[in-house]
Design a protein that fits this description.
Two copies of one chain form a homodimer. By secondary structure, chain A is α/β, with parallel strands linked by helices. Helix content of chain A is about 30%, strand content about 25%. Chain A has two domains: about 110 residues, NAD(P)-binding Rossmann-like Domain (Rossmann fold, 3-Layer(aba) Sandwich), CATH 3.40.50.720; about 190 residues, 2-Layer Sandwich (Dihydrodipicolinate Reductase, domain 2), CATH 3.30.360. The first copy, chain A, contains nine helices and 16 strands. Chain A has a six-stranded parallel sheet with strand order 7-4-3-8-9-10, with helices on both faces. In chain A, helix 1 crosses helix 9, helix 4 packs across helix 6 and helix 4 packs across helix 9. The longest helix of chain A has 17 residues. The termini of chain A are close together. At the A-B interface, strand 11, helix 5, strand 12, strand 13 and strand 15 of A face strand 11, helix 5, strand 12, strand 13 and strand 15 of B.
Chain lengths: ~350, ~350
């Protein structure tokens, strides 16, 4: 902690200090995007530590902050760290979080895994929605990618019209399985086109020119865990579980942007309360959202225009035929690694008090 | 007409004659699959005429019935034909259907275009569902691919539990745009992987590793025509428009099988009427449907196991969280060229009286 700053976020101003930052999982797809987002936002980084697996430790990684030597993670190595991003996996987070918080009584952990998301004592945060949930917590969970992308668009509509029902079908990119997922898609697609055998190591079936309606393990109710995460986490982030939400999660042969087809029933009559024009106005003004709703000019959300972009794209907005004046349907697309993970985590870091 | 046969369809027996068959659009993806389906079903083909564009006329096409010389279509050339498949497009169908029926008072037209689907005097048929709608009609419309695939699974459930609401999101293959669509996917995907410029001539945006929530033109209600086709045609085939149905239609980088995520609200309480076991039993017994509903063993519908297969695959069956005991959710996948077009058309041909 060296210097105090004033930073702007979402039209409010916050005090922030130069911070010693660490990333566990720095060589992964999310870890790399955390580095990129920190740099792009000119986050006041003082010291920076990049933790990797023991296999990669000692290697040098080029970053926007210059070259850094990768280190193996240890509690001891975190002693001067103010904020650490956990971008490894649930097992890592469960193994180290408590001890790290205990041994370093100032450190703040922003955890990208699902390990603590459903713990009612741990805030689960999308900064544009529930920044206030952070309070003084030193462990903050970053939501599932599909949830974070959906919530950016759903919450402003929820605030205006209320929400009675929500039905989601997803089109999820291979980046959800990290760099190995994206590599498997591109490498095996080339094999397919070249007439060579197609393998699958990361996904449960070959992914080239295929799609797989199975992400994470089956639950007792026959939804997958990935699908239930969207229900559980949306309820927690909105601090409201009064509206049922169902999801079908499908892996598609896309590199790094998730798409979602969303149908909702609202509490308020949309037609009597401004209609689609009002919905568009709300979404134009929503933080972190870009309206692409002009099908006549071929303008709508797609992985092609959402990848490597901070904002979630929304379009194909229409009154839903099933729920009539209380029904709304739209299509969203967001970068899985940014809004779905790294960018959200860095925006949380902008909010915490160190 | 040479010889009378008895053929079996759906556990009933029908009389059928050796028929003189023609295909308009024989070189297209659907035309080729009509030929394959006729051969596979050992359809009693006597004469066979293959019509193509004037550009291809005179070329020889290899078929399962031997080599045939392609001819340019004319009303005159159809004079001995008993059944003609129209697999060209709406404009062609509108241009020639009336005159052909008038000049050849025995010919039966099975039209794969959307030209006559919404004409209340023209039957729109999925043979497993509404074969009886054919009556003595000499012009029969073949449904939209997404509708035909959905209907095979939805109708048996509808018969058992009734239907109050239906919400569909699709994952539609490039074969919906014919051979040029499939070729664009494979060719441009190779360009993408090789780092070469990616073009789009068939689709409104580049399709490799992208998806496009825009198929056919926008309607006044902001749904696309492709989406509304599913609503209009399902109502017509079921002879029941009492249940609202909405669809989001999305083109995905898949070769030739369409997938659909389907959520329904039923009239009967599913839990009190046999539950998911009853649903599975119904679908096991449904004509033209294969149950793949074992996520623990990675068995569910995918383009990989639905392509070039006659049966529609269904799985991921679960009670829907939004509609509770009256809610059901499932995932279907069917070959767009077969069940979605050619196979359905040939099954109609098996039913008509010539």
């Amino acid at each position: 902690m060296i210097k105090r700053f004033i930073v702007a976020y979402n039209k409010s101003f916050y005090f922030m200090y130069m911070a010693n930052i660490a990333i566990a999982g720095a060589t992964g797809a999310v870890g790399q995007e955390i580095l990129n987002s920190l740099a792009k936002k000119e986050f006041p980084v003082n010291e920076l530590k990049l933790f990797s697996s023991s296999r990669s430790a000692g290697n040098t990684q080029a970053t926007s902050f210059g070259p850094y030597i990768l280190e193996e993670f240890s509690i001891e190595a975190c002693k001067n760290i103010d904020i650490i991003f956990f971008a490894v996996g649930g097992d890592f987070s469960r193994k180290y979080a408590s001890e790290l918080l205990e041994k370093n009584d100032k450190i703040i952990i922003i955890d990208n895994s699902s390990a603590f998301r459903y713990d009612k004592n741990i805030p689960l945060v999308v900064p544009a929605i529930n920044a206030s949930a952070i309070k003084n917590s030193r462990l903050i969970a970053n939501p599932n990618c599909t949830t974070a992308i959906l919530a950016m668009v759903l919450h402003p509509i929820y605030k205006e019209f209320g929400l009675k029902k929500c039905i989601v079908s997803t089109y999820q990119a291979t980046s959800g399985a990290g760099n190995p997922g994206m590599q498997e898609l591109l490498h095996e697609s080339k094999n397919y086109i070249d007439g060579l055998p197609v393998e699958n190591k990361i996904f449960s079936h070959p992914i080239p020119f295929n799609l797989i309606p199975h992400i994470d393990v089956e639950q007792e109710n026959h939804y997958t865990k990935e699908e239930m995460k969207v229900t559980w986490e949306t309820h927690k982030i909105f601090e409201d579980d009064s509206f049922p939400l169902s999801c079908t999660a499908v892996r598609v042969p896309i590199i790094r942007a998730h798409s979602e087809s969303v149908v909702i029933e609202t509490k308020k009559n949309i037609t009597e309360n401004g209609g689609l024009e009002k919905v568009r106005e709300i979404l134009i003004n929503a933080v972190g959202v870009t309206l692409r709703d002009d099908i006549q000019n071929n303008n709508y959300p797609m992985p092609l225009n959402a990848s490597e972009i901070d904002e979630v794209q929304v379009g194909r907005i229409r009154k839903n035929l099933v729920f009539g004046d209380f029904g709304l349907e739209f299509f969203v697309c967001g970068d899985q690694l940014l809004r779905g993970a790294a960018l959200n985590a860095v925006e949380i870091a902008e909010l915490v008090k160190i």
